Amino acid sequence: MRTTRLRSRLRGWGGVGAMAVLCALALAFVLLLPKLERHRPVVPVLGGGGPAAEAAQARAGTCTDATAQDLSLPPSDATGPAVEAVRARGYLSVGVDQNSYRWGYRSPDDASGALEGFDIDLAHRIARDLLGDAGKVQFRAIPTNERITAIRSGRVDMVVRTMTITCDRLEQVAFSAPYFRTGQQVLAPKTSPVTGYDASLAGRKVCSAAGSTAHDHLSADKKTGRLPASTDISVTVPSQLDCLVRLRLGEADAVVTDGALAASQAAQDPAVEPKGAPFTEEYYGVAMRRGADDLVRRVNRILDDYRKDGGWKASYDRWLLPTLGKDTPSATPPVPVYR
Is residue 215 a contact partner of residue 221, using CB atoms and an 8 Å limit? Predict the structure, then answer.
């Protein structure tokens, strides 16, 4: 039985033993992933003008997390060194998830284990409009805590991986205009007394992914007292799906993650469910290297077209409608406000 099929079939797990096996298989697959990728050199994205271009990015003094999604560059079809570097190489290198059901995951119905999902559709659309061929994209599986490092090191041209736009991240990478709206939410077993992001988390172990906005909120709210002092937030993992594994193994009592991901994980494992309403408002963006202004502008143009021509809605209806529904703010693409 193929590892990819086991990894994606979470529905109907029978207990702790199955979960432990899944953990081992997941680790083995991650170790083998580099060998499965095509061995082509990744050319670092060229900068867009050095210090002057860096200075053009959003500044901490003018940014708040409530407005961070409005600080991207206006769209343009103009080319530049970053776009030309991608075209010269002949393919787009994109960091994605391979374990987020309906976002970026290995298809159990494809013998090759092809990636599919909402984020994968977007990456293919960017490749199509940028290079004339949706297939000219090389996917690289990137853990949550390595997304920024992968961009800054030049390992990938961009990350399309449920990545929230924040002020802190804007100091390290550039973002496109937002392409999805969500918010942080609690996920816990259906039988759990946890009711949401509230006092019911007292004395509970809460899992989050290192480098995620969920972990940032937990840390900040523990300091300010919004979370009970007895809440244990020490359980962190490299990738968000690992929290679901910890939950089912009894190593965590609850998970904090994006509501969109929580809904997908509840669809994977019927023993868990989102608890309470989302307690933040956040936006996903395509992350790129600071200074690659021409690539950011081009992606913003592609996103504009993707919203207008129905591509975004078609992808939402295919992947996310079954878990998020149509009567939610997430069901329509965000309206961009450029700086």
Answer: no
pTM: 0.82
- The pLDDT tens digits of the residues spanning 274-285 come to 999 999 999 999
The distance of Cα 234 from the centroid of its chain, to the nearest Å, equals 22
Q: What are phi and psi of 117, to 5 degrees?
A: 135, 180
The pLDDT value given to residue 61: 61
- Our CA dihedral for 272, 273, 274, 276, rounded to 10 degrees, sits at -110
Task: Decide: residue 333, CB within 10 A, 0-12 exposed, 13-18 middle, 19+ buried.
Answer: buried
Q: Where are the beta strands (DSSP E) in the chain?
A: 92-96, 99-100, 104-106, 115-116, 137-141, 158-159, 174-175, 180-182, 184-189, 205-209, 232-237, 254-258, 272-275, 282-284, 287-288
> How many angstroms separate the first and last alpha carbons of the chain?
51
pLDDT digits (tens, 9 = 90+) for 248-258: 999 999 999 99
User: What residue type is 72 in one-letter code?
Assistant: S
Q: What type of residue is 312?
A: W
Which residue type is seen at 157?
Answer: D
Strand-strand pairing, 254-258 and 272-275: unpaired
